[in-house]
Every structure is written in C-alpha cells, then in structure tokens.
Design goal:
Elements: E1 4-5, H1 15-31, H2 36-48, E2 58-59, H3 91-104, H4 115-144, E3 148-152, H5 162-168, H6 172-181, H7 186-191, H8 202-216, E4 221-226, E5 234-238, E6 241-245, E7 258-269, E8 272-275, E9 281-284, E10 287-299, E11 306-315, H9 323-327, H10 331-334, H11 336-342, H12 355-384, H13 393-396, E12 397-402, H14 409-420, H15 425-435, E13 436-439, E14 450-452, H16 453-459, H17 461-482, H18 487-497, E15 500-501, H19 507-510, H20 525-528, E16 535-538, E17 541-544, H21 549-552, E18 565-567, H22 568-575, E19 579-581, H23 584-594, H24 596-601, E20 606-608, H25 615-621, H26 624-634, H27 656-681, E21 690-695, H28 704-719, H29 723-729, E22 733-738, H30 746-762, E23 772-777, H31 782-791, E24 794-797, H32 809-815, E25 819-822, H33 828-835, E26 841-842, H34 850-858, H35 866-876, H36 886-890, H37 906-925, H38 927-940, H39 946-958
Helix pairs in contact: 1-2, 1-4, 3-4, 3-6, 8-39, 12-14, 14-15, 14-17, 16-17, 17-18, 26-27, 27-31, 27-38, 28-30, 28-35
C-alpha cells in the first residue's frame, strides 16, 4: 500500500488554541458539565478540531497485514466539517477524532500509522464517547441517590472490547468508514486488541455478560475485580502438552482503562488486635498496602447508560521504599515492600500448593473485599451528606458475591461498621445480612473454599475474631431451633452447619456431648491375635507370655487432630440474605444435598437464578450473518434486547429458504474457523465436515476424556474397515477442543497431552484423510470462542450429571444454531426443555443415580462394557506415541482409592455416549433435518439471555429498579 500524508490538518489555529481545546476536552471528560447544552457544544468543537502539526507522519499498513480493501489504492483523508451530535458522530468526525488521538494521546512513535497504533487511537476515540456517557450516568446516580448493586468477582472474562463498544453505541458503520479512509479495515484493527486477561472460564464470562445486561437494561450497578498484570497464563501446546507462560495483555497498555490516582484505599495484613480505652477493638501494626482504582467503562446497547468495572491494583506509598537500603546496595530489601504489594495482582489464582501461595490467594480475596467495601461505603456516606443513617445502608447498597471468593466481605463489613463507625454488633449484623447475597457456582467439594484457621488468624486477626463471633451466634441459633433434647440430632446439625470446622463446642454446650474417653493408642490387629499356648493363668487371670522384650512394647500412634478450618460457603449463607444456584437442577442439589441443613433452617434464603448470556456479544456481534437472517425473518431487530422474539423462528423452521440461509451462514463461519485452525495449529480441515466442538476449562468432571476416548474408539473402528465401509458408516468430522488445565492439575494436563497425541496420529493418517480430524486450539479465550461458537454444528456438554452447576457455553452454542450432545446436567436440562427432546442428543446416567453408581463401584459390582476395555487396551498399545498413559487409564480402573475408580463415571457412560454419537451421524446425513434442528435450537434459546437473569436478580435479590438517563 502506498504512503499518504496523515495530518493534512488546518493551519488556521495556533498551537496555544490546540492546547486550550485539548485541555478543555480533558476537563470535560474527567469532571463533566452540569449544562448538557455546554457538553454538546464542547464535544462538537473538540471532535471537529484539527490541530496544527509542523511535522506530518504517514499512514500505511504493516506489510504483512492484508489490505483492508484491495480496491482502495490511496486512502483519502477528509476533514470533518459541520456540527456533530455527540451521541451519533458521523464518519468524518470519527476520522478527525482518531487522528487527534494518534497525535495527542500517542502510545506509538509518530512517523507511522500501522495497525497497533490504529487500534489504540480508535479505542481512545471510542472511549471519549464512553467517558461522556459514563460521567452522565455517574452524575445522574449521584444526584438521585438511587440504590445500586455492586457485583464482586475474582474474574471478569471480557474479551475484546472495541467491536462490542462501537456496536453497543450503534457506530459500527461509521467507524468502519472512518478507518477505511485511514487505510485500514475495522476488522483488522479490532484484531490487534488482546483479550483482557482478567478471567479463566464461565465464572468470569458470566460476570461480564451480567455487566453488559445491567448497562443495557439501565440498572444502577458497578462491577469490582482485580487488575491482574499477567492473568491466568497464556497456553502453548508443545510436544510435552500444555506449557504455561505469562500473559502479556498489558505490555502495550490498555486504552480502555482510566487510572484513578485519587481513588485509593489502605489495605492491611498481619498485625494484632488491641482493645482501646474506648472499649473498641483496634487492628494495628502489620503490613500496609494501597489499592488503586482503574476504571473500565461498560456501555449498554443503544442506551446512554454506561456503568463501571472498577479494578484494583496494589502498590505501597513512596515512603515505604527504603532509600537508605537502596543506596547501601541492598536493592532487594529496598524494594521488598513494593514487591510484596505488587505481586498481589500479578496472577489470577496463583498456585496454592505452598503456604506462600495460600497467603497470596487470601491476600487477593481480602484486597478485593476491603478496597471495594471502602469504596462503596465512601460513596454511601458522600450521597448521604451530613446526616448518615446506617440503617439505610441496605436500602442503598446491594452486594453480590460471585462464588465464595468475596466471602470476606461479610467480616470486613462487620469490622468497618463496628470498629470504625461505632455501631453495635446487633446493628451491624442486621445491616450486613440485609446487604450481602451469595451466588453458588459449584457442588464440587474442592471449590467450596475452606481456609486454614491458623493461616487466616495470622493474616487477618480481627476478621477471625469476628468470624468466631458469627459462628457462636450461629450455634445459638441452631440450639434455639432444634433444642437439646436430642443430642445426636443437634451434633449432626452443628457438624454440618458450623463455620468453624474441627473446633470444640462452647463450654456451655460441651457437657451435652460427653462421651466415654477413647484411647489414642492404636494396637495392631496381629497383637490382638493370641493362641491358647500364649496364655497362662496368674491368680486366676489370663496372661500373655512375654517372649520378646521388643514385642512387649506396643506400637503407639497418636491420632493426628484434623486441621481447624474456616468454611467460606457456610459463612456466605449465614451472613447473607439470599443464596442462589445457577440452574434449576443445580439449585435443587444445593437445597437438597450440598446445603440441605441450611435450607431446612432458612428455606426463604434459597433461590434459583438460571444463568444467561448476552445476545449482543454472542449473536449480534460475533455472528453478523445469522443476525441479519434473524432480523429479516422476524422483521425487527428487537430480538437483540428482547430474546423472547427468537421463539417466533419456530414457525419458519421448515421453510426451505430459511434453511438455505442458515446453512450458508454456518458455512461462512466454518470457513473462518478453517483459517483459524490452520493459523493456530498448522492442520488443514474440510469445511464440509461436521464441526464437533468441546471448549471449556479442562477438568475431569467436564469429561474431555470421555470425548477423546470416543474419538479413539471411532478411529480404531475406522482402521478396521475398508475405505468404502468407513465412508458408508461415518460422516466426516472435525473434533475441536479448547481450554486450559490449571497449572498444578496433573490429571487435566495429561488429558491435554492425550488429545494432542491423538491429533498428531489421526491427522497424519492417510487412510483416514478428511473423514476424521482432531484439533486442540491453543490458548482458548473469548475471541477464539467468538469464532468457534458460530461455526460449530455439534457441541459437547458431557459432564457427569449433577456436577456442572449451569454452564453458559451451552447457551451460546444453542443461540448460534448449534445442536448439543450432553447429559442431563446444569442448564442442559432447561435447554432441552426449550429446544425440544428431538433436537438434543441425550445420553448418560441421571444425577439422582450417581451416588448409587459410585457405591456400586466401591462394592466391586461394576462390570465395564467390552468396548470400554477395548479402547483402553488400544491406548496402551502405544499407537499414539511413546508417552506412558498408564496413570491416565489407571484413573478409570479399580474400585476405590484417590485418583482411581473412575469417580466421574466415564466407563459407565461410554457405551451410551457411543450410541448417541451414531445418532448424530445419522441425523447429519439428512441436512434438511439437521438444519431444522439448528433453527429450533436458536429459537429455543430465547430463555437464556442474561437480560432475563438480571431482571430476576434486580427484582428478587437486589431490589433495584432501572434508571434511564434523560
């Protein structure tokens, strides 16, 4: 592409005028204007301003990038003219704004306008509009003093923001035209944006969907999280399997965030608690850090409401830098405090195998809770003015804890109210319970966090005192409810419900549970076995003969005391006013199994809130071909914010024109994935094959192992057939995997290695060709999902029944006309109800059967299917390379033991899974039938919009109402 002059700007204004206007824009953006007319006038002048440049620089694409438009040889940069509506700028004004940012807020050198710089300048241009709307939203909430919801989450998996932001603002066409004038395509510019590395899986993506819906529906709300410098990790696939490297998403800066150096709060660790002369508790000494706010604006769809995601970054004050030590040459000591503070926000979920790792994780959780609550309380006090009534706090504030990570909100809010604000315990406890609510996301025991009491006492001494008091209050409530007449029942209740695990009961109750003393001496069984010859009578008493002085000494083993733990999920339930599961079946398991004792005590606390996903990102923006089809057939675009309209597609499901359009859109999306797979893995796949996808966090309960073993069995059977037999029996498939295994989760990493080994063998087998391909897409993230989901035709949601809380990827796939194969688990149950039994491939054991099946296995009664034994034996032949898979296959064998006995029932469900996959092949051969199923899946996904979920949270948990800006 030839070079054109970028800054053909007006020379009629002086540099001082340029600076004045730039300064005015800065003041406007940061503080806003109470006069809306002045706002519009200032923005109009600013965006039409073309600054003087004495040195021009060039616009040209990076040579390795494809041209935005091959018909455009010399991009012509036109000057903006005329007035501008700040909420609907035209392409000329946007062009001017991008040029302005390229010169006056540069992140790259001035001589080139290549794609990275184009992205930054474009993002900063979009951010101008977002900041204007953000300030208006914030100002309006402040003036009205509305009740606001605050969503606390350790993860926010946002994905790229550029296309989502301009799409929500309704400016996609204008920005595409503006960038074309500057020599780039919008698609290529957007591609340069890295995914924000603030999450890992469904938990974080759900949080981001919720923020989108909150803004779109005009609900007053903020999100709070941590600003991870390196995220979880960037995944590379090597010959050894998964390799983790640090994520670099912030290395070139983040144009969306705004550091708020004036918004910071102290956060304390360690130290001790002392009682003051005023009778109050004071937490003193220890390690002090500072949490600094970084704001990311979150725009609603076609609304001026722009809410905020506030992320905390950690550092220490300058005076904590030990200048004397540095000058003395002890540089490590000099920066020790800074290093300790900064590492809190380095990594999402740092490894916690070591004590240091556990401390760091707990520091992260407390930093999120402490900084966020201080910010929330400061806002409440400011809005309250001179007369602060703390009883009104729950009427103005709703705090939602996304899983157990923010549990420390409860003791932290109590600490602030009692120790710092002077409220009584009773007053503070009432306020806390009315303010806080808890979303449970798992039934897995390891995910229901338990923290070492000793570690927590060391790191957060005051909070432990408060937790002990809450636990004591809970004990009193349980005793009051169930009485002391039945000590066994009471003991059972206390054991299940107490926050503090493995603790002695209070002295007032201890006498109820007095039992005969048990010896702590363990005697070997062989010592208890004696013969008649060993016994003689001494004074009428039997006596064991002492043949050996060494045998005389009994083996004495002290039974170790179980560790004292703090059960965070129990604290969430006790300290909040609402507990919700995230799918109907999950909520029932929460009530009837996981927290049954709490449900019996407080049934009114428990609710279901089936998860949802935003239709803006997951259909409207990531699948424009399908979006156009839906809009044309429904004759409205209202479905983007009112997904109930999608159900109307059902009446067109048999229409051949609609089916042809659905197939054409799917093929276009598949062609994009063909290119993605080639780029990421080097494998070539056919777009005519069935695209069969399983993308999610790698975990044994999600059963990627079941999927890949099914593929191995398919491959083995293919190899035993002639070419003609293979073609007759099997439809071509591309089996796509993606997801990250946690760095210390050995078995999950073995599964990744196994998948890639199978791929290396199958994909290079000339006998198989395009009939079967296996692909593991490395570093799966939101941007990859936005390509894979619209292209997929079959999606695997095959977790062990009763173990997936909800799943949200299943909703995204269904929305995009993808048919699901799965168990009756999580939201699969509700999706199947909506799309129809005939349009969902169901297999496997049911949730109510799982406990019995595991018991049967433990008793040695399970008889594996011959096909399952056959596939394991085939893996062990070494056909997939030299790696030893005995440990992986061994986990599926035996009747009991850690890492054995097939806890997730892969073997049990294997024959059912194979049978179901045969039905998939049969259905796919009839493309008319398959397309009809695809349309009905899109139509049936209407229920799974996060808008519906947010309405339920707002109405039934938070008690907030929409506030639309004038």
């Amino acid at each position: 592409m030839s070079v054109s002059q970028f800054s053909a700007m007006s020379t009629t204004r002086s540099s001082s005028e340029a600076f004045v206007q730039y300064s005015s824009l800065s003041r406007f953006i940061e503080f806003g204007s109470r006069n809306r007319r002045s706002k519009k006038l200032l923005l109009t002048r600013t965006l039409n301003f073309r600054p003087l440049t004495t040195t021009s620089f060039c616009v040209k694409n990076v040579s390795s990038e494809p041209k935005a438009n091959p018909n455009v040889k010399e991009p012509v940069v036109e000057e903006a003219s005329g007035s501008l509506n700040p909420y609907a700028p035209d392409a000329a004004s946007i062009t001017s704004s991008i040029k302005y940012h390229a010169e006056f807020t540069p992140s790259y050198s001035p001589d080139k306008f290549e794609l990275p710089k184009a992205f930054f300048a474009t993002a900063q241009s979009v951010r101008d509009t977002l900041i204007i709307n953000w300030n208006s939203t914030y100002e309006y909430y402040e003036r009205l003093n509305v009740k606001q919801a605050y969503y606390l989450s350790m993860e926010f998996l946002q994905g790229r923001a550029l296309l989502n932001a301009i799409g929500n603002l309704g400016l996609t066409g204008a920005y595409a035209e503006a960038l074309s004038k500057l020599g780039h395509s919008l698609e290529n510019v957007a591609y340069k944006e890295p995914d924000a590395a603030l999450g890992n899986g469904g938990l974080g993506r759900l949080a981001s969907c919720f923020l989108d819906s909150l803004a779109t529906l005009n609900y007053p709300a903020w999100g709070y999280g941590l600003r991870y410098k390196y995220g979880l990790f960037k995944q590379r696939i090597t010959k050894d399997g998964q390799e983790e490297v640090a994520e670099d998403w912030l290395e070139l800066g983040n144009p969306w965030e705004m550091v708020r150096n004036d918004v910071s709060y102290p956060v304390k660790f360690f130290g001790k608690v002392v009682s003051g002369s005023d009778g109050k508790k004071h937490w003193i000494g220890g390690e002090d850090i500072k949490a600094v706010a970084y704001d990311v604006p979150i725009p609603g769809y076609k609304t001026k409401t722009t809410i905020n995601l506030r992320l905390w970054s950690t550092k220490v004050p300058s005076e904590d830098f030990d200048l004397s030590a540095f000058n003395a040459g002890d540089h490590t000591k000099a920066a020790e405090a800074l290093s300790n503070a900064e590492k809190i926000c380095y990594i999402l979920y740092p490894g916690d195998e070591s004590v240091e790792g556990k401390i760091l994780r707990l520091k992260q959780q407390y930093t999120l809770c402490s900084a966020s609550l201080q910010d929330i309380i400061a806002r409440f006090e400011r809005r309250s003015g001179a007369n602060i009534n703390w009883e009104e706090f729950p009427e103005k504030v709703a705090v939602q804890m996304n899983d157990t990570h923010p549990t420390l909100c409860i003791p932290e809010l109590m600490r602030v109210l009692v120790d710092l604000k002077g409220l009584s315990w009773k007053e503070a406890w009432n306020i806390t319970q009315r303010t806080v609510a808890y979303t449970n996301h798992t039934v897995l025991p390891e995910a229901l966090e338990k923290w070492s009491f000793e570690l927590m006492q060391k790191l957060l001494p005051r909070h432990v005192e408060i937790i002990e008091m809450i636990d004591e209050e809970l004990i009193n409530t349980i005793v009051l409810e169930y009485g002391t007449a039945d000590p066994d029942l009471l003991e059972k209740k206390l054991k299940a419900m107490r926050i503090l695990e493995n603790f002695d009961l209070p002295a007032t109750l201890a006498d109820l549970f007095v039992k005969p003393k048990e010896s702590n001496v363990v005697v070997r069984d062989d010592e208890l076995e004696t013969s008649e010859d060993d016994v003689e009578s001494v004074d009428g008493e039997p006596q064991v003969e002492k043949e050996d002085t060494q045998e005389e000494e009994k083996i004495v083993e002290a039974i170790p005391k179980p560790p004292k733990l703090v059960r965070m999920a129990n604290l969430c339930i006790v300290g909040g006013h609402a507990v919700n599961g995230v799918a109907e079946i999950h909520s029932e398991i929460v009530k009837n199994e996981v927290f049954n004792e709490f449900y019996k005590l407080w049934p009114e606390k428990f609710q279901n809130k089936t998860n949802g996903v935003t239709p803006r990102r997951w259909i409207r923006f990531c699948n424009p071909d399908l979006s156009k089809i839906i809009t044309n057939w429904l004759r409205t675009e209202d479905w983007v914010t009112n997904t109930e309209k999608l159900a109307e597609l059902r009446k067109f499901a048999d229409n051949e024109d609609l089916q042809a359009q659905f197939r054409a859109a799917k093929r276009n999306n598949k062609m994009k994935v063909v290119s993605l797979i080639k780029e990421k893995t080097g494998y070539s796949v056919s777009p005519d094959a069935l695209f069969d996808t399983q993308v999610k966090r790698i975990h044994e309960y999600k059963r990627q192992l079941l999927n890949i073993l099914g593929i191995v069995y398919r491959y083995k059977k293919m190899k035993e057939m002639t070419a003609a037999e293979r073609k007759a029996k099997y439809v071509p498939r591309v089996c796509i995997f993606g997801g990250k295994a946690f760095a210390t989760y050995v078995q999950a990493k073995r599964i990744v290695k196994f998948i890639t080994d199978v791929a290396a063998t199958v994909n290079h087998d000339p006998d198989i060709g395009d009939l079967l391909k296996v692909v593991f897409v490395p570093d799966y993230n939101v941007s990859v999902a936005e390509l894979l989901i619209p292209a997929s035709e079959l999606s695997e949601h095959i977790s062990t029944a009763g173990m997936e809380a909800s799943g949200t990827s299943n909703m995204k796939f269904a929305m995009n006309g993808c048919i699901l194969i799965g168990t009756l688990d999580g939201a699969n149950v509700e999706i199947r109800e909506e799309v129809g039994d005939d349009n969902f491939f169901l297999f496997g054991a049911r949730a109510h059967e799982i406990a019995g099946l595991r018991k049967e296995r433990a008793e040695g009664k399970f008889v594996p299917d011959p096909c399952f034994e056959e596939v394991k034996k085939f893996v062990r032949t070494g056909v997939f390379g030299p790696y030893n898979y005995d440990e992986l296959m061994g986990s599926l064998e035996g009747d009991e033991g850690f890492g054995r006995a097939d806890y997730f029932l892969v073997g049990k469900d294997f024959p059912s899974y194979l049978e179901c996959q045969e039905k998939v092949d049969e259905a796919y051969r009839d493309q008319k039938k398959w397309t009809r199923m695809s349309i009905l899946n899109t139509a049936g996904s209407y229920k799974f919009s996060s808008d519906r979920t947010i309405h339920e949270y707002a109405r039934e948990i938070w008690n907030i109402k929409p506030v639309e800006l004038p």
